[in-house]
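One thing: mind reviewing this one?
=====
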Amino acid sequence: MAQFFAALLAIIQAATPPPPMLDARWVITFDSAPAATPGFDADSAYVPLQGGKLVAANLNRGTIRWQLDVATALTPATGEGLVFVVTDSTIEARDAATGAVRWSSPWSGGSTVPPLYDTGWLLASTAAGDLVAMRASDGQTVWRRQLGSPLSGSPGPALDRLYLPLADNRVVSLLLATGDVMWERTLPARATSLLALDDQLVIGTAAKRVISLHLRNGRERWAWPVGGDISGAPAADADRIYFAARDNVLRAVDRGSGNLRWKANLPSRPAGGPLRLPDALLMPLVSSEIQAFEPASGKPATSARAAGEIGAQPFFRANASMTSPQLITVSREGQLQGFGRRFEPVPQALPVPLIGAPALP
């Protein structure tokens, strides 16, 4: 009889879905929808809103720190305590704590992709296809490179190189210090996303294909055809590379060989790329759901639900404390939301009395 009750308890526990691993801690509702994906630093989100506002939000408390009349349709970059914003006529560096202008530089010709901050550098591109490298501290131009085509996505820095996806289907490798071209490769289709790792370059293309290139020479290492366009940028850990496509499939391939390790069907279309957490793989979905998977097996784990339809790639605060909000989402309607980990005691099996056993005193 005891074995029967133990087996019944195991069945009940297996049939009960696990509780969400993430709890909503706070939500901020803006007056208008986001004009671009927010920029983030360790403690704040910088959200461009339609109508010409830039809002800084505290990620620990879910409160607005400052709000300014700054019109931009591009994600701000952050670094060195500064927020870098590209407008129609200037590039501005604003103090992250107050929003005050620290420096401003004229900018003409528009821009196709957000600025990028990397180890003291600020990189911005023009719609005509020029890439400009500036000192982030004061906006001084260090070098300018004519590429012949505008960027189709954000650059990817790795080691001493910078990797650029261009609208004319080329991928170009530059030396970060000088802007000198090291190699370029023409792909079968335009690159739509790019992940620069220390051993390879992983690229999603408009031809429903994911390609891995050698960093030093641009030669192909492996390639994967998929059933739809790649959603967001791939993610990686020491063993696997993860990418989702709009065929509603999440795939994990071996980081070295590119061989398929697992794939998982998604319940709805992806709203961005996968996010690799220390203990899980998160996949944002357009249904407002955030589905978790076990990285090694692809087995679905727990899930959470955002306040509205997810409109941009969520942000994971890798250096936040375990008790602080760690996952930040933004909805298409204009809701910024923070999720923290759920801490619960480890469930214990209920004691099963033995039939006929003497009662305890």
About this structure: Confidence is low (pLDDT under 50) at residues 8-20, 346-361. The CA atoms of residues 155 and 164 lie 5 Å apart. Helices lie at 2-15.
